[in-house]
């Protein structure tokens, strides 16, 4: 479904990713594990057009999207829930959700899609008219996930959903993501804590200093605590 | 006498205020969404007015035909500006300086082109509505009422558009969090184009409806634009409510200064007011600490 081959990417003067190969198949839960500052966010941004790679290729459903704009990639069904949520701060909760369904193919069914999001996070329905900037950290994260799910995603890319959250909220967030995955959605998720993703992962990549150093089925890597500890500390 | 003067000042002020507000609305929209300070806003005003004039004078069409033609020309002109001057430098370092110089350049070019095509003589654009009523000794023209009504209606329309429509909400999304907007499949650059074209159309309406009062010459757009800039700063950059309120506040203030101290004091008076205002509220009437977003 998603094939990333040999991508190099970075910011002015410094290369962050040194040739990444990665695959996500239909319905699969793929986790990129790595410590902070080793390129997880850069990798996801390079895939979804926010930071076009310098070289290499990204294919989604067989189509080359390496040089496509972020909005075109999103419209194709590759939906990225970014780090830090990036909500629309002066828009209401409801408006934020609606923007997730901006694309023509989803706008007309936005009511039905809202209903599904409200099943996942019922409080969103009650607080629809509240401005996004007034939400707590955990609420923002849920809204960001809900907004992403309003789009017609075929592969959901989620960047460190536990960042800065209290343990209770973190658990709630991962449970909601698992529910989405159990509905058949393919997920590519970046995290730095292996324990968070145990229920989500089919396969795991270990990212270190901009290079994928290990890849394997989740059961195998998760069992190897010595390995995980040496990478993630 | 006293009473007539007051009515005169209020009427003039409402009329000025409506036009300043309409011009400021376009400026503040583009600033709020694109972060572009469009100093060619007055040029768009003039383009619309001359196209309407030519439609009436050369093509012998009624003003009710010339109005939409002129407004469409203004929107098209603004769109071309976006295409050739804004889009190439979007997201590049130096965007502010490049677009500032480019829009000044357009302003001068339009003025020169109007001079070449139409000569410097004052042109008359017929009003949409004829006639007037006497109110406490003051001539209240129907065209003036139309200007005020149109301005209020367009403010309401823009507000409803931004609040309730898919495209309008997308404009706010882009202005508040551009990166997230693009992740929601919103085409950011095309959204900019829509905002700039709408802003151009608003300047066009102002240009065509105002010209029957002041006549039209190649530099007619300059004063309304300066006033609109002042209104925009006064009301808070990027604030629509600010543009509406500040338009009328400044319009009525200017009008009272004119009636009681003479026309020569109008602009100095307005500048004095804005300097005082910026000392008290540095971010404008409705400006917040950070730069306002739509």
Give the strand line-up of the largest sheet of chain A. 6-7-8-3-9-10
Q: Work out the radius of gyration of chain A.
A: 17 Å
Largest sheet: number of strands, sense, barrel closure of chain B: 2 strands, antiparallel
Encode the helix/strand succession of chain B as letters: HHHHEEHHHHHHH
Tell me the strand percentage band of chain A. Answer: 25-35%
Helix content of chain A: 25-40%
* CATH architecture group name of chain B: Orthogonal Bundle
Biggest contact: A-B, 28 and 18 residues
Rough outline of chain A: globular
Strand order of the largest sheet of chain B: 1-2
In whole angstroms, how far apart are the ends of chain A? 32 Å
Given as residue ranges, the uncertain stretches of chain A (5+ residues, pLDDT < 50) are none
Question: What are the low-pLDDT stretches of chain B, counting only 5+ consecutive residues below 50?
Answer: none
Strand residues, percent of chain B: under 5%
Structural classification of chain B = mainly alpha
Structural class of chain A: alpha/beta
Mean pLDDT of chain B, rounded to whole units? 91
- Series of secondary-structure elements of chain A, N-terminal to C-terminal: EEEHEEHEHHHHHEHEEEHH
